[in-house]
Amino acid sequence: MIDIKLIRENKELVKENIKKKFQDEKLPLVDEIYELDNEYRDTKLKMDTMRAEKNKLSSEIGNLMREGKREEAEEIKAKVSTMGSEIDTLTSREEELSKIIKEKMMVIPNIVASDVPVGKDDSENVELKRFGEATVPAYEIPYHADILESIDGLDKEASGRTSGNGFYYLMGDAARLSSAMLAYARDFMVQKGFTYCIPPFMIRSDVVTGVMSFTEMDAMMYKIEGEDLYLIGTSEHSMIGKFKDQLIKKESLPICMTSYSPCFRKEVGAHGIEERGIYRVHQFEKQEMIVLCEPEDSNDWYERMWKFTVELFRSLNIPVRQLECCTGDLADLKYKSCDVEAWSPRQQKFFEVGSCSNLTDAQARRLGIRVKSDKGNYYLHTLNNTVLASTRALIALIENNYNEDGSITIPEPLRMYMLGQEKIEPKRK
Q1: Mean pLDDT in consecutive groups of 10 residues from the start of the chain, 429 residues
Q2: Over the chain, what HEC string results?
Q3: In the chain, what is the straight-line distance between the N-terminal and C-terminal CA atoms, in Å?
């Protein structure tokens, strides 16, 4: 949520930002909020003025009674009573306006960074840099589901019986490898100075609407029937929510945390071959990182955070690239975002394995997270980034470490989590 001062002082800036995001249907909201805010401030001024006058008159009643001026005192009493009713009406309208304005403000997208490329959707995202050589071996790389099945590591048929499409059983060495990657990602971030956390896997609606837009919420979140609880789509949601309505001491910043959680999403399954695998699924596991920091430090943290993901994937022999998200691909709360994409030698293209975002003070405003300082209280900045998402990271790893004989080389950093095992041999070819 942006500061309403931007609408008060520079409506055109807010409108231009909406146009950059190709959300022209939201343009009328800016003028609506502007007018409602004017009414709100006028109402509040009248209410405050009237309340002050009422208090002044009320103090006079006692003096008049002591002076025996009962008639005059009764007149003022009647006036005070009328003013009280008017104040109640104004108070009610003030509360109503405040609620309406907040609801409309929640729909206005965050101001995007000036260097974010303008584009309608992810097809117009811009590649910035590659890390590692994207090579294609002389031998064929099978589809990832076939590789996993060859090591008895995937059972989609059974998950179809228990849960339906979009679920899976990982088994044996495949399951061990997935867990090893998550453990490595955890320890990797701890070594970077981040505090490890396992958060709640369900959050209330006021936290959901604090961390993401209504559109994202409807598209992603599973709601628990009959309760005000949602299954998290990423641990960033509950991690940022941890600080809801908190006043954080300036000296405690930056707050750097890395969290593990399962993730649940209403992913729309792809048709054809991709539906057979684990690329787009309803549940997976993830290691996440979040940072809460001073406003002036968020750009520096953004650069550091996405580079952590690059470093981790390169340590697993996976070539990656950084892709800057264009305006139309940015979620409403994001100021700036980039994807880290892994190389697929099978498909001979990159695919998304992580996303890093700077949300400036948009989440902090919605959740009431402020910094306490000698110069007054203010909203901090929040950032989040994927360290490793289990299913897509597993795909990237097995494709880039697949050998001609059907074995999978386990990258050196993972071997300590695999009891020293160096390869996974196929059980059938």
Answers
A1: 94 96 96 96 91 78 72 76 85 94 95 96 96 96 96 94 93 98 98 97 94 80 93 94 96 97 78 69 96 97 98 98 97 96 97 97 96 92 97 98 97 98 88
A2: CCCHHHHHHCHHHHHHHHHHCCCHHHHHHHHHHHHHHHHHHHHHHHHHHHHHHHHHHHHHHHHHHHCCCHHHHHHHHHHHHHHHHHHHHHHHHHHHHHHHHHHHHCCCCCCCCCCCCCCCCHHHCEEEEEECCCCCCCCCCCCHHHHHHHCCCEEHHHHHHHCCCCCCEECHHHHHHHHHHHHHHHHHHHHCCCEEECCCCEECHHHHHHHCCHHHHHHHCEECCCCCCEECCCHHHHHHHCCCCCEEEHHHCCEEEEEEEEEECCCCCCCHHHHHCCCCCCEEEEEEEEEEECHHHHHHHHHHHHHHHHHHHHHCCCCEEEEECCHHHCCCCCCEEEEEEEEECCCCEEEEEEEEEECCCHHHHHHCCEEECCCCCEECEEEEEEEEEHHHHHHHHHHHCECCCCCEECCHHHHHHHCCCCEECCCCC
A3: 54
Maximum alpha-carbon separation in the chain:
108
Contact 264, 238 (CB under 8 A): no
Say which residue the tokens 């000698």 belong to: 374
Planar angle of CA 122, 126, 132, nearest 5 degrees? 115
Give the CATH architecture of domain 122-424.
2-Layer Sandwich (3.30)
Please give the CATH superfamily to which domain 4-105 belongs. Serine-tRNA synthetase, tRNA binding domain (1.10.287.40)
Q: Which amino acid is present at 28?
A: P
Domain ranges of the chain: 4-105, 122-424
Whether residue 254 is preceded by a cis peptide bond, meaning omega within 30 degrees of 0, is yes
Spatial contact of 424 and 408, defined as CB atoms under 8 Å apart: yes
Query: 195-197 and 255-264: which strand pairing?
Result: parallel
What would the two tokens of residue 323 be?
A: 């892709």
Beta bridge partners of 291: 256, 383
Look-up: residue for tokens 């993830």?
286
In the numeric block, the tokens 């003070």 are attached to: 361
